[in-house]
Amino acid sequence: MNPPAFKFPKPFGAVLSLLPTYPHSLLFSQALNLALGRIIQPDLLEPLHGKLISIRVTDAGIRLFFSINATGFVACKAGKTPDLTISASAYDFILLGTRKEDPDSLFFNRRLVVEGDTELGLIAKNALDAIELPKLELSQFMPGPVLEKVASRLLAAGR
Asked: Which CATH architecture does the domain made up of 10-134 adopt?
């Protein structure tokens, strides 16, 4: 039996939706650069260069705006209509990130919504499918495993 899907409480999402978008977008863009910068082939994302892309986390009330250029992902301020908007709940984005769910099944079950230039969405999906990402397990980010890794690295550095 699968655990129930997590959803941000509506009051929490309402508060988050009032926050400015740029700080979140900057953190997200930098995280993408760190996570994908050395893995993804730049030519795969070339059709997306200069396009305004928005990620909307529906239940958390968060919108992220970024663009892609030759150096990577760049945070953008909200203002104009994005060329591509991808919307889903936080839980569904986590499922996508951990590859426990594929975008096609979420899309056809209407849990992932692509608006704007859907061809750009297909290019982004194919680019992400083309890279070999290590399987992301959220348990590895729990305090215990993280502290163990830090301790072992500190011990190794002290030798």
From this structure: 2-Layer Sandwich (3.30)
